[in-house]
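> call design_seq(struct)
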C-alpha cells in the first residue's frame, strides 16, 4: 500500500469512506494531503459541531486525541477512530486529574472552565468546556464570578483581559508550539513587513497577543482575513498547517508564518503525526478506536453540552 501514489491512495480512502459510511474530519493543522481527503476541515469547535450532527456510521478524526475523544463523547454510540495513536497534545498532557484536584482544593469556591485541549477525565471534572472560538462567551455565561480556568495560561490570561469583572485563577499549562513565539521576534518581523496584518491564536504568549491586530481560533482566521479586503499581506502566529487553508482560500494574498526562536518553527509534531497511509489503515482495519468509560462520557458530555449551548463570541 505504501507504494501507491498519493492520489491513488486518496482515491482509495474516499472509496473506503463511502463504502463504510464514514465521515473524515480534519483539523486546520493537518497536512495539506490529509485536509484534501477529508469531508470537513475546521477548528475544534467547528469539528465538535460536525461530530454532533453527523449521520455517518463512523468518524475518522484526523487531529489529536482530545479532539477524537470529544467526538466520541458527543457520539457515544458511534465508532470514532484516531488514525495515529501517537497524535496526543502537549497542552492536554500538562494537566492530570490529580493536579486539577489539587487546584480545585486550593480554590473550592471557583467554577472550573476547561479548554477542550484536555483529556476526557479532565472534562468530566469540569463544570463547562470552551474552545479558542468561544472562551470569552463561555466564561461570561458561567453564573459564578469566580473561575478556575484550565489548562492553558495564555488563553486564560487573554480571556481574563476580556472579562475583567470576574475573578479568574489560571492553571499553569501551555502549548509549546505556540509558547515558543516571543513578542520581540514578532516585532522584528512586523518591522520588516510593516503593511502586514498580524493574526494570532490565543495560545500565544501575552506579549505576542498585544502586538496582534486580530486574536482568534484557527477557523476564525479565515473570516478575519476576509474582513481585511484592503490588505494583501498577513503574518500568521499559529501552527504552520493553518497556512494551507489560508493560501487555498485566498490565493491572491500572501501569508507569512510568524518566526519562533532561531531554529524553531511553529510546528506541532502531534498534528503532523497523521499520514494518508494512517487514514487508509484506519478505514480499512477500523483502527484505532476511541474507548471511554460510560461515567466519564456522561460527566464530560455535560460539560461539553453546556459549552455548545452558549452562543459564539
Ligand atoms: P482551534 O480550536 O483554534 O482550532 O485550536 C486548536 C489547537 O489545538 C490550537 O493549538
Ligand atoms: Fe496541542 Fe499545541 Fe499541538 Fe494544539 S498545537 S494540538 S495545543 S500541542
Amino acid at each position: 500500500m505504501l507504494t501507491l501514489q498519493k492520489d491513488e491512495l486518496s482515491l482509495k480512502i474516499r472509496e473506503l469512506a463511502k463504502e463504510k459510511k464514514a465521515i473524515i474530519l480534519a483539523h486546520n493543522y493537518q497536512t495539506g494531503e490529509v485536509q484534501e481527503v477529508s469531508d470537513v476541515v475546521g477548528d475544534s469547535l467547528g469539528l465538535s459541531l460536525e461530530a454532533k450532527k453527523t449521520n455517518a456510521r463512523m468518524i475518522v478524526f484526523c487531529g489529536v486525541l482530545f479532539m477524537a475523544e470529544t467526538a466520541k463523547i458527543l457520539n457515544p454510540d458511534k465508532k470514532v477512530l484516531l488514525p495515529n495513536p501517537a497524535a496526543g497534545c502537549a497542552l492536554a498532557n500538562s494537566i492530570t486529574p490529580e493536579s486539577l484536584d489539587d487546584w480545585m482544593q486550593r480554590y473550592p469556591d471557583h467554577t472550573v472552565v476547561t479548554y477542550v485541549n484536555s483529556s476526557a477525565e479532565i472534562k468530566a471534572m469540569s463544570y463547562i468546556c470552551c474552545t479558542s472560538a468561544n472562551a470569552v462567551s463561555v466564561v461570561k455565561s458561567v453564573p459564578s464570578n469566580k473561575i478556575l480556568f484550565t489548562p492553558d495560561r495564555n488563553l486564560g490570561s487573554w480571556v481574563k483581559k476580556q472579562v475583567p469583572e470576574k475573578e479568574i485563577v489560571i492553571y499553569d499549562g501551555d502549548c509549546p508550539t505556540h509558547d515558543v513565539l516571543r513578542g520581540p521576534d514578532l516585532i522584528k518581523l512586523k518591522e520588516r513587513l510593516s503593511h502586514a496584518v498580524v493574526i494570532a491564536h490565543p495560545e500565544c504568549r501575552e506579549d505576542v497577543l498585544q502586538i496582534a491586530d486580530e486574536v482568534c481560533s484557527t477557523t476564525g482566521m479565515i473570516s478575519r482575513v476576509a474582513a481585511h479586503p484592503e490588505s494583501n499581506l498577513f503574518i500568521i502566529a499559529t501552527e504552520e498547517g493553518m497556512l494551507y487553508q489560508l493560501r487555498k482560500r485566498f490565493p491572491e494574498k500572501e501569508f507569512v508564518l510568524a518566526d519562533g526562536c532561531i531554529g524553531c518553527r511553529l510546528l506541532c509534531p502531534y498534528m503532523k503525526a497523521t499520514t494518508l497511509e494512517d487514514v487508509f489503515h484506519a478505514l480499512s482495519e477500523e483502527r484505532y478506536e476511541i474507548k471511554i468509560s460510560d461515567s466519564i462520557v456522561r460527566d464530560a458530555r455535560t460539560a461539553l453540552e453546556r459549552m455548545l449551548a452558549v452562543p459564539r463570541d
